[in-house]
Amino acid sequence: MRSATLTESLALSETSRIIDDERRRVRLRARRTSLRRAAVLVVIVVALLVVWQLAADLALTRLGVAASPLSIVRSIVDDAGLYLNATAVTGWVAVRGWVIGNAVAILVAVLFVQIPALESLFLRLALVLFCLPLVAVNPILQLTFPADTARVVLTALSVFFTTLVGAILGLRSADGGPLTMVRAWGGSGVAGLRFVRLPSSIPAVMTGLQVGAAAAVLGAIFGEFIGATRGIGVLLINGLMGLQLDRIWSIAVIATIMAAVPYALFGYLRDRLAPWGASISTAAPAAGRRASRGATRVLRPLAWAAGSVVIVLAAWWAYLAAFDVSSFVGKSPTDVLAYLTSVDDAGENRAAIAGALGTTLLHGGIGYIAGLTVGVTAAVLFVQFPVVERIVTPVAVAFRTVPIIVIIPVLILALGRGLGAVVAITAIVTFFPTLANTQSGLARVPIDGINLMRSYDASRWTTLWRLQLPYTLPAIFASARIAVPSALLAATLAEWLATGDGLGHYIVGSRAESDYAGLWAGAAVLTVVSLIAYSVVSLVERRVLSTYSPTHVS
Amino acid sequence: MTNTARAMTRVAGVIGLALAASLALTACSTDDAGEGPDKLTLQTSWLPSVQFSGSYIADDAGYYEDEDLDVSILPGGPDVANDAVVAAGNADIGLTNADNVARANAEGADLVIVAAGFQKQPFAILSAPDDPLNKPKDLIGKRIGVPSADTALLDTFLELNDIDKSDVTVVPVGFDVAPLVSGEVDGLVAFYTEQPTAYTAATGEKGVTMLVGDYGLDVYAQVYVVRRETLDDPDARDRITRFLKAEKKGWGDVVDDVQHAVDLTVETYAKDGGLSAEQQLAQATLQLDLLTSPDTEKHGLFWISDDGIKRNIATITALGISGADASMFDTSILESLADTK
């Protein structure tokens, strides 16, 4: 009896020693692996920089395409005061716009979730704001507000929608179990909000704040295009005018850092505050509503849609009235309708807009599809071959945060002004979010599922096809949806700055000719088309998800 | 029902509060009214550069102050519609081109040109020295880069010079000189002082410029434009008159001492723009060609002559803009200032 216990306790201490040893070994191995990973990362980054330096020295700088890393560093060091000053000015606009845009977005998200009728009516208005082409919004804001306010409003607008969507999905992510519990215990809607919804929305909100950082820098830089004496945008324009490669590339690097630092910070905060994860990407689409039967199934959404249209038009009129926009510049929905249907040149106007729209759709469409395809493929390759991931990730992270307004000039220098450059630009804005979302979606496939596939001796590709991809579909579609307006926005910017055709050119050309009805009409048509494309993607999303990934719908 | 209504009201209140708070956060205080110099806002047409150095000197040397004016010089930019800023009443006076004024007026604005900063249309066709475009006919069979806003300009230029549009390949470009440097185009619609300077800086060679103004497309540029109602109001008119007096003095200084204008621009008024002093000096020197003319020798800077008005209207009509006539110019202020330099 006694000896048995002794043996047992001996065995126990032996076991615990073994466990301790094992633990230490694992920890050591983990540390070694992470050290090795960091070393590999450094080597890759250095290698990329060396390649860049050589390419620049050998040809790119002479061709007027790219500055070398060393000359960029030299430029930043030599003109440190200038860059610092510009960064502070643009940064301050970005921070204010970011705070206001996010605060309003979170507030509106809470209201939408607590009072669903509001969401049905106003979400489309929010989407319209997101789809509005910056090229057209910028001069209108400039004519409505003092320059500084206009810049902050533009920045807030560029941040608003992604955070709104993230926050809504986050607040809803806890619906079901926990919320029912609060209700069952007699908790009010506010209690549900406080104890369930707000805490569970943290990760999604943090992701929104993170993505918003890049959007805010874009907005703040673009805001300087309406006239400024200081800032990153001013340096960028002057650099372009004088064809100063060092300046343009230094600005691209600085703008990227401006966006990447808060991006990394909020990523870290999210992982600290809410280690349980869940981001915008994997949450279910907002539209999953209770299915109703027969006629109501068609009629109810139609009624809400009609209500939304009325609200959007009312908001349009209200903006013109509330800010007393001069009738020379501010055109109402009826003016736009007249421009397209009843004025003398209405036929020509329609033809011109239709032609420009075709070009923009071509630019946006090719880039969009290419960006999606390559993004998903790259994410899959990363999961299958981690080596690829380690090489590409540093580049991908950098590109994910570069504000497009600084990519465009750099790409024009590199690729010229043809279809190639525009497609590359729209592809880039689609590619990086898709890659990131798909990657995080793939990473969240439950290990049990993978073990099951393994126990059936499924091949790598079967696992991918049968398990990983279906699981990642919601993430892929979420990025596909949000990328629609971004791709069209990028296309119009590129058309203005590079190719001089399409709706981007039409809008700027109308402004240059004081044809404000043309500007509003171009912007309205682009917004409507953008909304339709967004809805089509949502529709496909719902269809596909209801077949392949039932758990993710409603 | 009432519950929803109450919720809605609350929602509206909250949104209103949020909006008010955000606007309060961003708005800057402007209510320091009272005695002091008269306030006046000038909307320039681009980011600060030597192109506006006359105004900088007027400000720096106290010429505005001497006229009891407190002038805010607003920067322009790629996405600024200067005429609209003036038409909408956001600025008292603006800088733009005569043809743009005609366009704005055709669309319902009522703007009047009171002075001509540049006597010549600064648009030019810039080409490389080894493949120069010296006269309009040289454009035949070439690829010409045209920025978004200037397509109509090139079309009219070709038409006026009897060149078939299909004989020229139009390449849409942005506002930088890169396409010409890389050889993507043979010629570029350029701003006389800007792109040629950048071209020289980039290639070390002097590009060839052909001013479109020398071939039938002549309008006054960098004109000072106001709303007609401003001229109808005696006080406002007086402010504009004093402003132009100070402004003329400032630009006179630019003509006398280009280097000072460049220094003041690069070191003070555009100090955060990262401009290159050499490029600015080259620009300022070229700019003298635009500022002065036989008319200005005789009557002083900014002069608008009857012949000039006729030329402008002819060009504007050729550009296909309807409704332009001599009423879009008002030379009475210039005439009252003719003695001062």
From TrEMBL, chain A:
<dbReference type="GO" id="GO:0055085">
    <property type="term" value="P:transmembrane transport"/>
</dbReference>
<feature type="transmembrane region" description="Helical">
    <location>
        <begin position="121"/>
        <end position="141"/>
    </location>
</feature>
<keyword id="KW-0812">Transmembrane</keyword>
<feature type="transmembrane region" description="Helical">
    <location>
        <begin position="153"/>
        <end position="171"/>
    </location>
</feature>
<keyword id="KW-1003">Cell membrane</keyword>
<feature type="domain" description="ABC transmembrane type-1">
    <location>
        <begin position="357"/>
        <end position="541"/>
    </location>
</feature>
<feature type="transmembrane region" description="Helical">
    <location>
        <begin position="475"/>
        <end position="497"/>
    </location>
</feature>
<feature type="transmembrane region" description="Helical">
    <location>
        <begin position="93"/>
        <end position="114"/>
    </location>
</feature>
<feature type="transmembrane region" description="Helical">
    <location>
        <begin position="34"/>
        <end position="55"/>
    </location>
</feature>
<feature type="domain" description="ABC transmembrane type-1">
    <location>
        <begin position="87"/>
        <end position="270"/>
    </location>
</feature>
<dbReference type="InterPro" id="IPR035906">
    <property type="entry name" value="MetI-like_sf"/>
</dbReference>
<dbReference type="Pfam" id="PF00528">
    <property type="entry name" value="BPD_transp_1"/>
</dbReference>
<feature type="transmembrane region" description="Helical">
    <location>
        <begin position="391"/>
        <end position="412"/>
    </location>
</feature>
<keyword id="KW-0472">Membrane</keyword>
<keyword id="KW-1133">Transmembrane helix</keyword>
<protein>
    <submittedName>
        <fullName>ABC transporter permease subunit</fullName>
    </submittedName>
</protein>
<feature type="transmembrane region" description="Helical">
    <location>
        <begin position="418"/>
        <end position="436"/>
    </location>
</feature>
<comment type="similarity">
    <text>Belongs to the binding-protein-dependent transport system permease family.</text>
</comment>
<dbReference type="GO" id="GO:0005886">
    <property type="term" value="C:plasma membrane"/>
</dbReference>
<keyword id="KW-0813">Transport</keyword>
<dbReference type="InterPro" id="IPR000515">
    <property type="entry name" value="MetI-like"/>
</dbReference>
<feature type="transmembrane region" description="Helical">
    <location>
        <begin position="298"/>
        <end position="319"/>
    </location>
</feature>
TrEMBL record, chain B:
<keyword id="KW-0663">Pyridoxal phosphate</keyword>
<keyword id="KW-0808">Transferase</keyword>
<keyword id="KW-0479">Metal-binding</keyword>
<dbReference type="Pfam" id="PF09084">
    <property type="entry name" value="NMT1"/>
</dbReference>
<comment type="subunit">
    <text>Homodimer.</text>
</comment>
<feature type="signal peptide">
    <location>
        <begin position="1"/>
        <end position="26"/>
    </location>
</feature>
<protein>
    <recommendedName>
        <fullName>Thiamine pyrimidine synthase</fullName>
    </recommendedName>
</protein>
<comment type="pathway">
    <text>Cofactor biosynthesis; thiamine diphosphate biosynthesis.</text>
</comment>
<comment type="function">
    <text>Responsible for the formation of the pyrimidine heterocycle in the thiamine biosynthesis pathway. Catalyzes the formation of hydroxymethylpyrimidine phosphate (HMP-P) from histidine and pyridoxal phosphate (PLP). The protein uses PLP and the active site histidine to form HMP-P, generating an inactive enzyme. The enzyme can only undergo a single turnover, which suggests it is a suicide enzyme.</text>
</comment>
<dbReference type="InterPro" id="IPR027939">
    <property type="entry name" value="NMT1/THI5"/>
</dbReference>
<keyword id="KW-0784">Thiamine biosynthesis</keyword>
<feature type="domain" description="SsuA/THI5-like">
    <location>
        <begin position="51"/>
        <end position="257"/>
    </location>
</feature>
<keyword id="KW-0408">Iron</keyword>
<dbReference type="GO" id="GO:0016740">
    <property type="term" value="F:transferase activity"/>
</dbReference>
<dbReference type="InterPro" id="IPR015168">
    <property type="entry name" value="SsuA/THI5"/>
</dbReference>
<dbReference type="GO" id="GO:0009228">
    <property type="term" value="P:thiamine biosynthetic process"/>
</dbReference>
<dbReference type="GO" id="GO:0046872">
    <property type="term" value="F:metal ion binding"/>
</dbReference>
<keyword id="KW-0732">Signal</keyword>
<comment type="similarity">
    <text>Belongs to the NMT1/THI5 family.</text>
</comment>
